[in-house]
Design a protein that fits this description.
The protein has two domains: 84 residues, no CATH class; 95 residues. The chain is 39% helix and 32% strand. The protein has three helices and nine strands. The strands form two sheets. The protein has a five-stranded mixed beta sheet with strand order 1-2-3-4-9, with no helix packed on it. Strands 5-6-7-8 form a four-stranded antiparallel beta sheet, with no helix packed on it. The protein is elongated and about 70 Å long.
Amino acid sequence: MTRMWGWTAGGLGLAVACWVVLELIDHWNFVVDPLVTAGLLTVMMLAAGGGVTLALKTLVLRILVLATTVALVVITGLTILVFAFGPDSGVTQQRVSSPGGRYELLVIDGAGFVSIDREIDVRIRAANKMFVQESLVWDGLEEGKAPETVRFSGAHAIEIVADDGCRYRSTFDPDTLAVRPVHRMGYEPGC
C-alpha cells in the first residue's frame, strides 16, 4: 500500500514539475518549439493520470481515469501537431535592431491561424545563445491600420507610426519582455 502511494506522489510531483516549467516558459515569453510543449503536456497528463489511477481502489474508476487521460493526451497531441505543422505563421517584412543589438522588432505579414483575415503583427524579440523571447507589440488586421515605421525610441521603449500617421508607443520589460500596452488595431478610424 505504501509503495502505491509513493508512485502516486511521484506521478503527481512530476505533473506539477512539468506545469511549473510551462508556466515559466509562458511568464518569460520564451519561444519554444510546439513539440517541446506537446511533450511536456503529455508527460504532465500521463503522470497525473497515472498517479490518480494508482490511488483509486475500484477497477471501474481506474479504467475511467485512464481512458480520460489517454483521450486528453490524444486531443492535446493532435492540437499541438496542427499548430506545429499548420499554416505558415507569416513572412517577416522588416527587422529593426535596438542600438545595443539585444532586441529586435519584427513586422510580420501573414495569415492569422484562427481567423480568415490576414494579420500584420509587430513583435519584439530578444535572443541570447540559449533562449529566444518574443512578445506581441501590435496586432493588426489587413483592412485596418498597418505599421509604416517601427523603431526603438528609448532603452525600453518602442514607437510605431501607422500608415495614417498616428503614433503608438509601448514600453517593455527587459527581463520578461512583457509589453504595455499591446496595440490591437481593428477597423476603427482615428488615433
